[in-house]
């Protein structure tokens, strides 16, 4: 039996994905955490914990180094809520351009019997602009950014993209009418709309600040549906002579109570479809890792998926240093255990080795020997089901 502990509201469809071999929130020694945005940065992980799956994209709420040191595999569910974010961003682009929020305020405050005549005078205050033919810059062209860029093309906009780390997978998804720009300041110059879809990390914190806002076109509208801190909110507030509106999912004191700021409470991924999607993917990720050792979509381990055809599988998470596989296979040879299949890959300082074996002898001793190699973070033995 495997034990899963959940944090945040996890969609029932995801929880129902687990087979009868899993209990949810019932035990004190969880094998897996299934989370959304809960802040785990200061949490001490139990020794039993082997995997954290984040239903969603951002992993800045997970202490990756500490998790890796504790031998915990960390995953997200890339793209599971990308369409939800895209639809919110596009709707906010239209709503701000058509002054929908101000128009709503006006109507809400002026509902009385003869409003129908009054509106014909007052509606000039709410003259808007169209997206068609306007310039948009999409910063970050991964799962969310590529969808936003493609939808903007569909809406007749001139679309530019800036993403120095664009993956080949993402590049395949992007409409060839999206112009790729390599200089952020040049890219910002002509954009009527700037939308940011990057992970939060050291490099992207303050990605848009005073200098970048100065490079922007007058009256541009800025969108941050990525994370708090990627845009310097103080710089935005200080530059509303330049920026027309700032739309964001991440409010704070600096931007509170400002008519030029439209803040939503982190609802980019909050649709029934996206929450189902993320929870189902996260549940499958946990099961595939615990039962097969698969690491596809891992944040801290190399991506590996090896057909599991032998009776037993060792999975070893270890530092990426010489002679790890040599030491491990020597233990197996000394125990007269025959290797059926194996794979090893590395991601930065960490490596992962999968070894399938035909027979087992002294398994407790073998696992202990592997675990006692100083560079090994975690060794597991999985029985084929
Ligand atoms: N508001 C929400 O509810 C919500 C929902 C989903 C995602 N998000 C946030 O949006 C972020 C992006 O999501 P995604 O699914 O598109 O992630 P993703 O990993 O698919 O794409 C991120 C893209 O950003 C690019 N990038 C990285 N550093 C960059 C930099 N310095 N400049 C420009 N581009 C850079 C990467 O190359 C990648 O293509 C997530 O990390 C998360 O923080 C928020
Ligand atoms: O869980 C959520 O609702 C937030 C999701 C979003 O911020 C993400 O990074 O995927």
From TrEMBL:
InterPro entries for the chain: ACT-like_dom_sf, ACT_dom, D-isomer_2_OHA_DH_cat_dom, D-isomer_DH_NAD-bd, NAD(P)-bd_dom_sf
Pfam family, one: 2-Hacid_dh
Ranges where the ACT domain occurs: 313-384
Catalytic activity: (2R)-3-phosphoglycerate + NAD(+) = 3-phosphooxypyruvate + NADH + H(+); (R)-2-hydroxyglutarate + NAD(+) = 2-oxoglutarate + NADH + H(+)
EC number(s) stated in the UniProt entry for this protein: 1.1.1.399, 1.1.1.95
Keywords: Oxidoreductase
GO terms, molecular function: NAD binding; phosphoglycerate dehydrogenase activity
SUPFAM superfamilies from the UniProt entry: ACT-like, Formate/glycerate dehydrogenase catalytic domain-like, NAD(P)-binding Rossmann-fold domains
Ranges in a coiled coil: none
Keyword Oxidoreductase: yes
Pathway(s) annotated for this protein in UniProt: Amino-acid biosynthesis; L-serine biosynthesis; L-serine from 3-phospho-D-glycerate: step 1/3
Enzyme class: oxidoreductase
Biological role stated in the UniProt entry: Catalyzes the reversible oxidation of 3-phospho-D-glycerate to 3-phosphonooxypyruvate, the first step of the phosphorylated L-serine biosynthesis pathway. Also catalyzes the reversible oxidation of 2-hydroxyglutarate to 2-oxoglutarate.
Family: Belongs to the D-isomer specific 2-hydroxyacid dehydrogenase family.
Name of the molecule in the record: D-3-phosphoglycerate dehydrogenase
């Amino acid at each position: 039996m495997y034990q899963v502990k959940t944090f945040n509201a996890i969609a029932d469809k995801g929880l129902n994905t687990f087979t009868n071999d899993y209990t949810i929130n019932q035990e004190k020694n969880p094998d897996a955490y299934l989370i959304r945005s809960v802040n785990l940065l200061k949490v001490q992980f139990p020794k039993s914990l082997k995997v954290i799956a984040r239903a969603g994209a951002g992993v800045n709420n997970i202490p990756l180094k500490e998790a890796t040191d504790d031998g915990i595999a960390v995953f997200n569910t890339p793209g599971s809520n990308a369409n939800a974010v895209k639809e919110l961003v596009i709707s906010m682009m239209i709503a701000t351009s058509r002054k929908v929020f101000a128009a709503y305020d006006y109507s809400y405050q002026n509902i009385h019997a003869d409003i129908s005549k009054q509106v014909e005078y007052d509606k000039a205050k709410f003259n808007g602009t169209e997206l068609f033919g306007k310039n948009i810059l999409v910063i970050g062209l991964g799962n969310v950014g590529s969808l936003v860029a493609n939808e903007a093309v569909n809406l007749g906009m001139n679309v530019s993209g800036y993403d120095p780390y664009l993956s080949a997978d993402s590049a395949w998804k992007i409409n060839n009418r999206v112009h790729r720009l390599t200089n952020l300041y040049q890219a910002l110059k002509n954009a009527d709309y700037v939308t940011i879809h990057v992970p939060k990390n050291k490099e992207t914190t303050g990605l848009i600040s005073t200098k970048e806002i100065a490079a922007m076109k007058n009256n541009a509208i800025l969108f941050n549906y990525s994370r708090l801190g990627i845009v310097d909110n103080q710089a935005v507030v200080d530059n509303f002579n330049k920026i027309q509106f700032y739309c964001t999912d991440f409010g704070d004191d600096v931007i509170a109570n400002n008519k030029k700021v439209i803040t939503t409470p982190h609802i980019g991924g909050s649709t029934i479809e996206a929450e189902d999607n993320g929870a189902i993917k996260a549940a499958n990720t946990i099961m595939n890792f615990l039962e097969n050792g698969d690491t596809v979509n891992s944040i801290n381990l190399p991506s590996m998926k090896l057909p599991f055809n032998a009776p037993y599988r060792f999975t070893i998470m270890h530092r990426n240093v010489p002679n790890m596989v040599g030491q491990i296979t020597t233990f197996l040879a000394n125990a007269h255990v025959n290797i059926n299949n194996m794979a090893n890959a590395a991601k930065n300082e960490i490596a992962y080795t999968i070894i399938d074996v035909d027979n087992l002898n002294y398994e407790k001793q073998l696992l202990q020997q592997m675990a006692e190699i100083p560079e090994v973070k975690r060794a597991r033995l999985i029985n084929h089901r």
